[in-house]
Structure formats: structure tokens, C-alpha cells
């Protein structure tokens, strides 16, 4: 294999240790431990795992991690009422609603995310936080794209003047990722910015050629092994955001074996981008607590 493996698990552990140290200092200054509250609707197995992992990660970092579980058919009104209750609970610094909300029960995801107090919106999905990011003056950075920025930065990979292709235009990953990489340096954390970004999607005319033109390829489409070896420029950096369960195994959006023979660096699945999402959530929770207490 030619490519260097970008070890997201290791970088996430490094960030989690840094957050834990900062939490310790925050608490030593007389502040209460930061508190993150996750809301889980229904019993989707993957969502249950993610929420449990978030609570465990909180505990290890000295953050109080609470989970509110609602039945699948709780309904929009009850969910909104819970979000509003958490907004006014002074003991709660960060709120997240685990996505996706259950299908077939008429949940309006947009209305729920809009209702989260922007100062407690540690996922950075609310319109205020998305708008601040668009304007290059973010408050919270969305966790998965921020994790990717940290991984690139800590792996010594610069994006400045590079051609980056982000495949997938989701609100959680694709759109904010493209926005962050296109910003001027310094506005979205470390010096991972100033890229020339293409945001590709299902209607992109010649996706293979578009991908092949990229120095850095970020795949966030949710389709197993969709990015094949022939879509990768020799020596490109490949970041795989996909987590697809196929025959009881996790596979990314990239055909890893083929890509690793062509790329200079690549993230594995599992153990690549995924663990960074939770690390950056802890970072945002501490930030929220600091913003709310003025410390
Ligand atoms: N409210 C949110 N909902 C969702 C988010 C989010 O950031 N906020 N992102 C994803 C799910 N997610 C966190 O919520 C998440 C996904 C994957 C991982 C992870 O560590 N993956 C591991 C594999 C884990 C496994 O065995 O399944 C890896 O890639 O190594 C963490 C968090 C959608 N919903």
C-alpha cells in the first residue's frame, strides 16, 4: 500500500485529552462541570451507539453527559417542548438532537434544529451558527467538518491554494466543509483554509473527472465504495466520511484498497473521521460552557 493512513482515532484521543485538561482548569477556576444533553428519539441502533459513546466520552473528559430518550412516536410537539425546556435550564450548556429523526413519524427536523438556543447549539446546526460560519466569524464549528480540519492540520496537510473536491452537499458535512475550507486562514480554527473548493453532488456532470482534478478529495455521500480508484488523482489526499454497514461490516464511501494504492494519504473506515466527530463535540461543549459563564 502506498498511502499514509491518517489515524483519526489517535488524533481524536489527542484532542479529547486536551479538552479534558481544559475542563479541569475550567472547573478549578470555580465553574461547574460543563453539561451536554443529548436527545434521542426512537431506537435506531446506530443512533443509540453514538449517543452512548457521546455520554461516555463526556464522562472521560470531566463533562456531565445526560441523555433524554423519547419514544419513536413522541411527536413534534413533545420534542419541541423538551428542546425549549433544555434551552431554559441553566444547568445545561450544550444541547444536541441526535439525527436522523425517525422516518415516517412526521418530524420536522428543521423546526427542531431552529428551536435550539444558538448559544447551546454544540452541533452548530442552527441557522444563526450556520450564518456566522458563512460570514467567516463562526461561534461553534460543526463537529465532523471541524474534525477533518483538525486531522488535516495535525497531519501537516495544508489546504492553501489546493483544489479540494467535497462530494455530497449535506447540511451536516458537505456544505459546511466546503465553506470552512474556502474561508480565509484563521477564521475557522487552524491554518486549514484558502482552498479552491468544488462542491460535487449527484447532479455533477462528470463526477469522475471532477474528483480526478482534486488535490484533496472529501467523500460524504453515504454510498459504499462509490469513489473508485480511477476517480483519484495520483498522490491526492483522500478523506472518507462515509460510514456504511455492508454485510455486518463498516465500509466508507471510498474503495479503500484501490484508493490506498494511488493516494498519498487516506482515512480508514472505521477509525478515520468518525471518532473526531465526538472529540469536537466535547470541544464545543466546553466552549459553550465558557461562553455562558463568561470565563
Ligand atoms: N446531532 C447529530 N447527529 C448526527 C451527527 C452529528 O454530528 N450530530 N453525526 C452522525 C453520527 N455521529 C454522531 O452523532 C457519529 C458517527 C460515527 C462516529 C464514529 O465514531 N464512527 C466510528 C464507527 C462506529 C461504529 O462502529 O458504528 C468510526 O468511523 O470509526 C461517531 C459519531 C449522524 N448523526
Remind me, CATH topology of the largest domain? Rossmann fold
Estimated structural class: alpha/beta
The structural domain count equals 2
What is the string of helix and strand elements? EHEHEHEHHHEHEHEEEEHEH
Present as ligands are: the ligand Nc1nc2c(c(=O)[nH]1)N[C@@H](CN(C=O)c1ccc(C(=O)N[C@@H](CCC(=O)O)C(=O)O)cc1)CN2
Mean pLDDT: 97
Number of E strands: 11
Shape: globular
Protein name: Bifunctional protein FolD
Domain Tetrahydrofolate dehydrogenase/cyclohydrolase NAD(P)-binding: 142-292
Organism: Roseiconus lacunae
Subunit structure: Homodimer.
Describe the structure.
The chain starts with a strand and ends with a helix. The longest helix has 21 residues, at 8-28. Helix content is 40%, strand content 16%. Helix 1 packs parallel to helix 10 (274-293). It has helices at 8-28, 45-61, 76-88, 109-115, 127-134, 143-154, 174-182, 207-212, 256-259, 274-293, and strands at residues 4-5, 35-41, 64-70, 94-97, 163-167, 196-200, 216-219, 237-240, 244-246, 249-251, 265-266. It has 295 residues and is α/β, with parallel strands linked by helices. It has a 6-stranded parallel β-sheet with strand order 1-11-8-7-5-6. The protein has a 3-stranded parallel β-sheet with strand order 3-2-4, with helices on both faces. The protein is globular, with a radius of gyration of 19 Å. It folds into 2 domains: 30-117, 3-Layer(aba) Sandwich (Rossmann fold), CATH 3.40.50.10860; 142-274, NAD(P)-binding Rossmann-like Domain (Rossmann fold), CATH 3.40.50.720. It is built from 10 helices and 11 strands. Helix 7 (174-182) links the parallel strand 5 (163-167) and strand 6. 46% of the residues are buried. The structure holds ligand LMY7XDAE. Residues 46, 49-50, 96-99, 123, 143-144, 172, 243, 250, 269-271, 274-275, 277-278 line the site of the ligand Nc1nc2c(c(=O)[nH]1)N[C@@H](CN(C=O)c1ccc(C(=O)N[C@@H](CCC(=O)O)C(=O)O)cc1)CN2. Residues 142-292 form the Tetrahydrofolate dehydrogenase/cyclohydrolase NAD(P)-binding domain. Belongs to the tetrahydrofolate dehydrogenase/cyclohydrolase family. Pathway: One-carbon metabolism; tetrahydrofolate interconversion. Residues 6-123 form the Tetrahydrofolate dehydrogenase/cyclohydrolase catalytic domain.
Amino acid at each position: 500500500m502506498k498511502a499514509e493512513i491518517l489515524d483519526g482515532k489517535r488524533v481524536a484521543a489527542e484532542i479529547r485529552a486536551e479538552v479534558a485538561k481544559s475542563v479541569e482548569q475550567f472547573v478549578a477556576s470555580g465553574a461547574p462541570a460543563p453539561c451536554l444533553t443529548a436527545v434521542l428519539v426512537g431506537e435506531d441502533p446506530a443512533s443509540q451507539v453514538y449517543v452512548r459513546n457521546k455520554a461516555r466520552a463526556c464522562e472521560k473528559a470531566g463533562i456531565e453527559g445526560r441523555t433524554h430518550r423519547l419514544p419513536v412516536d413522541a411527536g413534534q410537539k413533545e420534542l419541541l417542548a423538551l428542546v425549549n425546556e433544555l434551552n431554559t435550564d441553566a444547568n445545561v450548556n450544550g444541547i444536541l438532537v441526535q439525527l436522523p429523526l425517525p422516518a415516517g413519524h412526521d418530524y420536522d427536523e428543521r423546526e427542531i434544529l431552529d428551536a435550539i438556543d444558538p448559544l447551546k447549539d454544540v452541533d452548530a446546526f442552527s441557522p444563526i451558527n450556520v450564518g456566522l460560519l458563512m460570514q467567516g466569524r463562526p461561534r461553534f464549528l460543526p463537529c465532523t467538518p471541524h474534525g477533518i480540519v483538525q486531522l488535516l492540520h495535525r497531519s501537516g496537510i495544508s489546504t492553501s491554494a489546493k483544489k479540494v473536491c467535497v462530494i455530497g452537499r449535506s447540511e451536516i458535512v458537505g456544505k459546511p466543509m466546503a465553506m470552512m475550507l474556502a474561508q480565509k486562514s484563521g477564521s475557522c480554527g487552524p491554518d486549514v483554509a484558502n482552498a479552491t473548493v468544488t462542491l460535487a453532488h449527484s447532479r455533477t456532470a462528470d463526477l469522475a473527472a471532477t474528483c480526478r482534478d482534486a488535490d484533496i478529495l472529501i467523500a460524504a455521500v453515504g454510498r459504499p465504495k462509490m469513489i473508485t480508484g480511477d476517480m483519484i488523482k495520483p498522490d491526492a489526499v483522500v478523506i472518507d466520511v462515509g460510514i456504511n454497514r455492508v454485510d455486518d461490516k463498516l465500509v466508507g464511501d471510498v474503495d479503500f484498497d484501490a484508493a490506498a494504492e494511488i493516494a498519498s494519504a487516506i482515512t480508514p473506515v472505521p477509525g478515520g473521521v468518525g471518532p473526531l466527530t465526538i472529540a469536537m463535540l466535547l470541544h464545543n461543549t466546553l466552549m459553550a460552557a465558557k461562553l455562558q459563564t463568561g470565563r
